[in-house]
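Batch manifest, entry 17 of 40.
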Amino acid sequence: MADILGAPWWRTAVIYQVYPRSFADANGDGIGDLPGIRGRLTHLRDLGVDAVWLSPFYPSPQVDAGYDVCDYRDVDPMFGTLADFDALVAEAHRLGLRVIIDVVANHTSDQHPWFVEALAAGPGSAARERYLFRPGKGTNGEQPPNDWESVFGGSAWTRVADGEWYLHLFDPAQPDLNWRDLEVRGEFEDVLRFWLDRGVDGFRVDVAHGMIKADGLPDVGPRKQVRLLGKGDLPFFDQDDVHDIYRSWRKILDGYPGQRIAVAEAWASTYERLARYVAYDELHQAFNFEFLRAAWDAVELRGVIDQCLASMGAVGAPTTWVLSNHDKRRHVTRFGGGEIGLRRARAAVLLMLALPGSAYVYQGEELGLPEVLDLPDEARQDPIWLRSGGTEPGRDGCRVPLPWSGDAPPYGFGPASSTPWLPQPADWAELTAAAQDGDPASMLALYRTALRTRREHPALGQGSSEELEWLPAPAGVLAFRRAGTPSLVCTVNLTDAPVDLAAAGVRVTDAPLLASSAVASGMLPPDTAAWWSVAG
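Output type: structure tokens
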């Protein structure tokens, strides 16, 4: 953990995302839990990360795996108790790890007491003002109030018994809150204080771009509106008034010791609009989805890196870098799968960790886990799968429980007699943490070495420059220098052929400080990244 009195820890932190259902199961019910996470925190300490981010663990009907919350001040019994949470935070802090938790503020569960009250209270009531209820169109109000579509598919509106409709940008079990209502704002300010008082070091803000909707709730027009996410203007996302919320939250965070932070899960149509979420008086970080979405292409990656650094630098904020998360296909598979996907994944993490800013690691990527593409239909639980009628696979494939040890499922995820909530592949024995531990050629060893080097090298980690210098390189190769004494050069070959670094003009003074695969005689193999130390 960085010195609280020193440079802001979050500007260069590596933060590890834990998806609680799938991390570690202590009680043998097949579902991960807080005691299971606590028992595996030494894995994260040894990995070398600075903080752990927990996806939701609140009481929930679990329609959307916990992102449908019915009580923001407690722990769902499936995950444990508040005492278990307090013990986890205490142990994490003892090990030098900070703890960030999700806050799901765009919507609640339809079983939240507020929504239950709103249904009972009827049209025009104060209880309904906390949500977005509207009369329908048509002769008898039988049509939705507008043409908005759910991110999970279908209409974003559901009609209730008295004829009114309520908005849900996700599942019908996740009604959107009305953030123009002062009671809603006050409630969540109190929720933040509740968890800050329990010692959390920050929050990841779910759907941070969605909490304010355009006045009048105008139609969008185009269909398949989810395709406009992060690419076009939508009246239910990234509205200017949302920034008033985060200015008030920043004041709360700044009122606590220890540099508490908030991270925006935000989609915006331009880099400049995304940067508004991390202005000096708003949130501290915003997820960089453009880097995650970039193709394995040198020109595209360099363009994304330059644009991200420029836009965030303009407001004095660090850039974040992320390759996978609980909503996206794992990057080993996204980069081609099999051996080529693994090579590219090894290269990608060295590229990511050499860039200025903060990095996020999704659980299991340090083991090289691929997306599980062949889950049985009956095992899938994602509402995207269910609402699409089975035409969209959803996100279950990146949420399969982790393999810790052993030759067969459940691979130490829980007791040998337990059955994980999603089935694990039969061929994951070589990917377990135990199988990779001590193997210098493993993905786990690469992550451990990279994170240790990032922390120790003068050009990286704490105190590193917020800039980088691009170096001349042949087509399909990225090379840049990070300032320090000594400086550090990262070279990435994104082509399908070896590259002679010396012939390309890349200065090589020593053997690689760290390489994602063997580098011989100055030749960088295909789909490979290497860190090179140079005089400086």
